[in-house]
Amino acid sequence: MKRLQFQKFIFYAVLLLMTTVYIGPFIYQFFISISQSKDVFGDPVKLLQPPNWTFQNYANVWVDLPFKQWLFNSLFITLVQTIMNVFFSALAGFVFARLTFPGRKFLFGLLISSLTVPVIILLVPKFIFMNNLRLVNTYAGLILPNLITITNIFLMKQFFETIPKDLEEAALIDGCSYFRIFWQIFLPVSTPALAAVAIYTFQGSWNEFLWPVTLAITSDKFTLPVGVGFLKNQFQSDWPLLMAGTLLITLPTLCIFLVFQRYFVQGVAASGGKE
Amino acid sequence: MPQPSTRQRDMITIAWLFLGFPLLLIGLFVFFPIGYSLFISFFDWNLVTNQRTFIGLANYTRLFSDSLFWKSTGNTILYTIGVVPIQTFLALFLAFVMNQKIRGRSFFRAAFYIPAITSSVVTSTLFIALFSKQGLINQLFGLENDWLTNPNTAMLTIMANNIWTTSGYFMVSFLAGLQSIPNSLYEAARIDGASTWQQFWKITVPMVRPVTYFVLVLGLIGCFQVFDQIFIMSAGGPVNSTTTLSYYVYVNGFKYFKLGYAAAAAIVLAVLIFSANQVQNRYFKPEVD
Amino acid sequence: MSKLTTCWRYVLVLSIVFTFSGCQSTDTKLTRLSGWSSNPVEEKLVAGVLADFHREKPAVNFKYEPIPGNYTEKIQLMLGTHTAPDVFYLRGETAPSYMRFNVLEPLNQYAADTTFRIDDFYPALLKSFQKGDTLYGVPKDFNPYVLFYNKAMFGEAGLTHPPQNWKELEAFSRRMTKDTNGDGKPDQYGLVLEPTIEMIMAFVYQNGGDFQKEDGTLGILDKNFLDALEYYVRLYRTGAATIPSDLSAKWNGECFGTKKCAMVISSGWLIPELRTNYNDVDWGVAELPVGRQKATIVFTNAYAMPKESIHKKDGWQIIDYLTSQDGLKSVVKQGLALPPRRSVAQNLGLYNDPVKRVFLQSAEFARTFQTTLPERWYEEASVALQMIYFDNKTPREAMEALNRQIESGILQ
Amino acid sequence: MATVEIRNLVKQYPGAAKAAIPNANLTIDDQSFVVLVGPSGCGKSTLLRMIAGLEEISGGELLIDGQRMNDLSPKDRDIAMVFQNYALYPHMSVYENMAFGLKLRKFSKAEIDNRVRAAADILDMKELLDRKPKAMSGGQRQRVAIGRAIVREPKVFLFDEPLSNLDAKLRVQMRVEIKRLHQRLKATMVYVTHDQVEAMTMGDKIVVLKAGVIQQADSPMNLYNNPANLFVAGFIGSPSMNFGRGTLVAQDKTLRFVNSALDFQIPASLADTLVGQVGKEIIFGFRPESIYDICFPSGKTLTEPQRITIDVTEPIGSETFLYFSLQDQVCCMRTLSDSQYQPNQTIDVGFDTERLYFFDPQTEQRIG
């Protein structure tokens, strides 16, 4: 009995330690963000004293920086990408899961194999391409390349394959066209998968850095990560401001994650379970 | 070969119709760039002046005589070798812990997962604060190291950042794998007298091999491409000790505007990833039952 | 179900419309002016001057778009992607590559206007933006390296004047380097130098050397260059001077402000720091000590227009105003920038100011540090200096390595 | 209402060596209830799906009411289908499920409402209309699936093993209901099952398939009494027919069936047809209910007594099955439930001479 309790104690001690390692930095970040003094380093205890707290840094982020513009850009780009991505990856996933046509296997294999191609290899050609279309530093340029994600197609295909074939055939007999089957039967039935893909895409788009940092040149086209990333150079000594800004970027994904945790986990599980 | 019937033809038409726009996008932004990258790599192509000259393989020969290229390749490999095993093991360990009967499991799971959903800009900025000379880490451990400006520790710090953010993500992959292991297996092992630790090594580890493989593949691809953290935390420095291939490509392309040269380096990176994957396939791929 | 469907469809259509309509990049009717934004104060200042301009010339429709972060790369990127602003700041150090790429509008014709009086500018500044006789930028401000010294520490050490030459610099510095608490490590240094190529180049120029010679070949293995470098490094290695990171500081201004050293080589940007953060320091400035000749490094910026601009007339009006007597006056009055026009400095009486006079006089023998090498040379040079300061290589070894790296073709 | 004609229908899957259905011919009369039965993989579902239009027709013709249907899509064939897994749209209520096909065909709201309510009435599920499929039992779901077919008032109803996901009791109940529905709607129905009991109890006409080939198509009792071949004989009936191999021997102007366990005279009525097989191997078949203990009067003409040893007795309540071996073949015999047989008991039995079946071992066709 004693041994068991000791084991339990060790177990919870390890768990607690791990938890601290994983969320401790965010708590540190929060306390820096509400610090009155710009001199945040040194003895960490002084960050914990209430008289030193202020929320002014958050107000400063909002007022002094083009934060509103960046927030709008981030939201706009992310939402468009998420909605379109869900739609198009579902559409393509439906085709690969349900329709037979010559070259299907080959095409799908091609898509999957392209997943190992490093993103950086696409950067230069994509940029030249966008430049030729005069889309550098535009919303269209920022949005277009990420309207569809191959992983999402894969996820949707996986999910659609679990939907009984009967359902599709019943709909065919009921008089549905393929688009209607997709739109009125498969989509409504696939809410969990769509949610997973949507959340997934939202998170990816929201946090995307390489493409916007390359393509967005002027501040009015920056997304939040890019904007705040540059703030780092500009306000190197103003850690409370920086931390307030970074914490604000984290909030949307954090909220979405906490609310839809279940779908999130499903999405990762589905992409990781089989290959 | 019989002629496809009307219905088959319909289906083919519909399939292509549905796939049209997605494939167009993928073609434009994935497949075309891959080919175009190769094309560009044979040119001396300056973005600012938009002049291009065909120079054959000169970009590649220059690349191979550039000591910084070799250094970044070395850094990339070092980084991958340092990060992948630790992050994989940590993820598996976390998943194993999460799979036990514990109170507040979803809280802990969320806690481990939060770094994974956080923007790399945020985690990187956070790490700069944590690992600065007067930052929390030095305060806690009584050190005086300036982690990110010290060439010996800058890479370690970035590696720590990556491990910290991705282990939670892969934990979820493992968790799914773990939950598909029938409980009776553990029960049988307990009756046979296996301790928790033995259960972990003798049942969990072999049973999640397919997931492990998947995590290793993804981890490897991810590590070979590391960029954001480098860009924000160290910009390749100090003394190029954190310049990885991805960053090298970016700098050559968008700081020095040598597009052809950058494309050539990117191609080399792709080949490197491809070969590493082949090695993985060859030696680590679990047999499918 | 039908509700859900309708909702979906609505959102989808809307988002498609949005994507393809809301993406027009920049309003082509406006003349765009861009600079870096180093801090909010400066941004407000520029906005104020521009408001004056707008009052004077309401016909010119313009927009001020500051570019945060990685300015040099961003502007080159914009030039390459046809999105460049119609007027932008050009750093003196980076000017050669722009001029070489032939993407800037020559300004000689515009500046030939007699009311503009181009000959009023300090020649050293103009020279930074000239290729041959062609002018590509109009200087907007400048900042030379000068010597800041702590008067109290000088008094304590019994020194009556700032160092005049290299010998004095070393001797004075040694005299003021001391270990006050007896732990074997000095707590106060005479001089803090930064291990950067710009600061070293001031000494190289004083010694008659150059990084890249007139004919384009490298001068880093020449005796004049190496002697200056060796002198500079020796100050550090023999303990006559130190570097900021050894004092846990980010830059030498911080060391000077916290009274950890008696002298630093720095420029205008240190002054506001001293006034706001370290106002208990009693300081003075002097021209840099002289080597074989008088020389210093100057950092200067100019206004330039891209060749591709479609608003060159309006663009020039902006440049014209901002670099005119009136325009410069209001900038100078409000802030700390030094006017690139001699007449403005004289009219504002800046030559009577004991601090500003030093800066203005330095402009007469200052040089902008420029090379025509591809940008990567700078990283390589930093690596070479790191080798000296952190890997204990001799200056010659490091410069030989740098020379190899540059000559090997990667940088050509 | 409609007839369905299948003429030389062929199903060839691409890449498969053999055709799934080499050549099928079948006529389904108007208002009839036809059951397609056979072991799994025999092609019965394929055939049904070809009628539905869910499978491509590789050759031959499919006519509904005399019209060629081969190239029409399922929705244009005026058929309705009930699936094994119900295939209800999980996101729609019962009402919406039933109305969906009508909506797509642009029926007026009133007409849709009429039909749905009428169908709900027939199937006695008015109170279920607002429910979602998830909230219903298997039987209720099956009812909805049938209701969805009814509202369409199609020319032909197709059922693809609709009862196999239900438990045994419910299955019997639904069987009756579908039968009743058929009588009420007077519609043409094609029903696929692997369960021969279901086939026997429901069909007007049963079509037995094996490996894509129609073995026999006939009324249930004809199929039972006059199986065309070894397969049908073995497939129809439960417990199934017993078989034994032996030789026909001519002796004293009579024919005898002889093997190591059995030796009996073939009745004169059969002797004429079998005389050509003398000296050849032959397969003998008898049903469990046409073998009798000679100790009890049966009122039948029996063959000479044959001695058997009981291995296992299996009382099922209404009757008792006895199992015994003939030449290593397990055979079954049906007896009354009050009989007191014991394992290892030896008894003498005779076969009902009216119900002896003989098959050619090569062709497996019935020869007598």
Automatic annotation (TrEMBL), chain A:
PROSITE patterns assigned: ABC_TM1
TM region(s), chain numbering: 9-31, 70-94, 106-128, 140-160, 181-202, 239-260
Keyword presence, Transport: yes
SUPFAM superfamilies hit by this protein: MetI-like (SSF161098)
Location, primary (coarse class): membrane
Membrane topology: Multi-pass membrane protein
Record keywords: Cell membrane, Membrane, Transmembrane, Transmembrane helix, Transport
Domain ABC transmembrane type-1: 71-260
Gene3D superfamilies (UniProt xref): MetI-like
Pfam family, one: BPD_transp_1
Any single Gene Ontology cellular-component annotation: plasma membrane
Subcellular location: Cell membrane
A single BP term in Gene Ontology: transmembrane transport
InterPro entries linked to this entry: MetI-like (IPR000515), MetI-like_sf (IPR035906)
Family membership noted in the UniProt record: Belongs to the binding-protein-dependent transport system permease family.
Record-given protein name: Carbohydrate ABC transporter permease
Protein species of origin: Spirosoma profusum
Automatic annotation (TrEMBL), chain B:
GO terms under biological process: transmembrane transport
Domain of life from the UniProt record: Bacteria
Listed CDD domains: TM_PBP2
Swiss-Prot/TrEMBL keywords: Cell membrane, Membrane, Transmembrane, Transmembrane helix, Transport
TM region(s), chain numbering: 12-36, 77-98, 110-132, 152-176, 211-236, 256-276
Ranges for domain ABC transmembrane type-1: 73-280
Subcellular location(s) of the protein: Cell membrane
Recorded topology in the membrane: Multi-pass membrane protein
GO CC annotations, alphabetized: plasma membrane
Family: Belongs to the binding-protein-dependent transport system permease family.
Protein name: Sugar ABC transporter permease
Phylogenetic placement of the source organism: Bacteria, Pseudomonadati, Bacteroidota, Cytophagia, Cytophagales
TrEMBL record, chain C:
Gene Ontology CC annotations of this record: ATP-binding cassette (ABC) transporter complex, substrate-binding subunit-containing
Matches recorded under PROSITE patterns: PROKAR_LIPOPROTEIN
GO molecular function annotation: maltose binding
CDD domains: PBP2_UgpB (cd14748)
Record-level GO BP terms: maltodextrin transmembrane transport; maltose transport
Classification via InterPro entries: SBP
Pfam families in the cross-refs: SBP_bac_1
Keywords, sorted A to Z: Signal, Transport
Signal peptide positions (record): 1-25
SUPFAM superfamilies: Periplasmic binding protein-like II
Gene3D superfamilies named in the record: Periplasmic binding protein-like II
Coiled-coil regions listed in the entry: none
Origin: domain of life: Bacteria
Entry similarity comment: Belongs to the bacterial solute-binding protein 1 family.
Name assigned to this protein: ABC transporter substrate-binding protein
TrEMBL record, chain D:
GO cellular component: ATP-binding cassette (ABC) transporter complex, substrate-binding subunit-containing
GO molecular function, one term: ABC-type transporter activity
Domain of life, source organism: Bacteria
Coiled coil spans: none
ABC transporter domain sequence ranges: 4-236
UniProt record, GO biological process: carbohydrate transport
Keyword Phosphoprotein applies: no
Keywords, in A-Z order: ATP-binding, Nucleotide-binding, Transport
Keyword Transport: yes
Gene3D superfamilies: 2.40.50.100, Nucleic acid-binding proteins, P-loop containing nucleotide triphosphate hydrolases
Annotated InterPro entries: AAA+_ATPase (IPR003593), ABC_transporter-like_ATP-bd (IPR003439), ABC_transporter-like_CS (IPR017871), ABC_transpr_MalK-like (IPR015855), ABC_transpr_MalK/UgpC-like (IPR047641), Mo/tungstate-bd_C_term_dom (IPR008995), NA-bd_OB-fold (IPR012340), OB_MalK-like (IPR040582)
Alphabetical list of PANTHER family matching this protein: MALTODEXTRIN IMPORT ATP-BINDING PROTEIN MSMX, OSMOPROTECTIVE COMPOUNDS UPTAKE ATP-BINDING PROTEIN GGTA
Descriptive protein name: Sn-glycerol-3-phosphate ABC transporter ATP-binding protein UgpC
The organism's taxonomic lineage, starting at the top: Bacteria, Pseudomonadati, Bacteroidota, Cytophagia, Cytophagales
Gene encoding the protein: ugpC
